[in-house]
Amino acid sequence: MFSTSNWRSLVLLCSWLAISLMLGAQPTPAPTGQDTGQNPQDVPNQTQTPTRPLRDLPQDNIRPNYVLGSNDQILVRAPNADEINEKPFRIDADGNVNMPLLGRVHVGGMTVQELEADLVQRLREYIRDPQVIISVVQFRSEPVFFVGAFKAPGIYPLQGRRTLVEMLAAIGGLQPNASRHIKVTRRAEYGTIPLPGAIDDPEKKISTVEISMGSLRENVNPAEDILLQPYDVVSVERAEQIYVSGEVLRSNAIEMGERESISIAQVLSLAGGFTKDSARGKVRILRPVLNTNRRYAIEVDVKRIFDGKDNDVPLLPNDIVYVPRSYTRAFWTTLETVALPLIPYIIFLAVQ
Q1: Residues in contact with 320: Cβ distance below 8 Å, sequence separation at least 6, in sequence order
Q2: What is the pTM (predicted TM-score) of this model?
Q3: pLDDT of 85-127, one tens digit each?
Q4: DSSP state of 163
Q5: E-strand stretches of 102-240
Q6: 3 state DSSP class of 65
Q7: Does the domain spanning 241-329 belong to CATH 3.40.1010.10?
Q8: How does DSSP classify residue 61?
Q9: How far is CA 117 from the centre of its chain?
Q10: For residues 34-68, b (16+ Cβ closer than 10 Å) or e, as one string?
Q11: Most buried residue, 68, 143, 258, 309, by most Cβ within 10 Å?
């Protein structure tokens, strides 16, 4: 029979043996550069370089607005989800794609931006802080691109023979502050734009032309209403501005807006008119010199225009209208405001 002390000694001995066996089963890490006899590909890499975050990748300002549809092919970039990362998916006739991990996802009718948000939400069930960027690598039909101050800029499918006016109407037209001139850029493989003002660039392999919105609106069948071709880029800037400063009541920038042109008399009226010290006969138009940072001055006698003796002067985009100060007028103004109130006092002193 074992005594109590003997039983305690036996238990301690067994415990020590169990701990020793457990510690002996742990593999000893090999020193750096020592051959472990294992294939490096079979050993998990504990010091992997972190994946570059997607926010560092280039973004396309038009891409998020594209509406996905059947037969589009998309490329999903999700660095934390290897099952779908850098893999292409084609949208089927019902507007669905089958993705590993996520299953069938209905994407037809979504914009690219909406689908990115949807996939991020779905991946949160499996991954912490997922990031997704989607690129359209093949369009269901040839696209055209509308860039700039349109009401709905984006990528639109060119289905059939569509003219410029038809597509402008389909996307809602221009913003109120848009320029009255639009630019069309076409790839050389689709030929030169069939307008007299079109310019070919052999190096870039493109053809470009500027088209007046006034011409598109006023003519019944304008030549500028060209048939669009695949991958045409239609762009429009903000409306040109005229700047007015100097001896006017309100120095500001005036947008030309819907106007094809604006005159110096109109600009000065919109600026609230002259101050009483203005030199109305020596108003200057400072006009940009093409391809330089210089401006040349055109002197205009606006007083004669307002008197009906001279024709009004049309202004060009980015002109500066400067109204100088008349120092003669300023002298008499100072005299009236300072000296005249003192005359009774001077007379009083003289009489005394």
Answers
A1: 242, 243, 244, 245, 285, 286, 295
A2: 0.49
A3: 999 999 998 899 999 989 999 998 888 889 999 999 999 999 8
A4: B
A5: 103-106, 133-138, 143-148, 154-157, 178-187, 199-201, 206-212, 233-238
A6: helix
A7: no
A8: S
A9: 20
A10: eeeeeeeeeeeeeeeeeeeebeeeeeeebbbbbeb
A11: 68
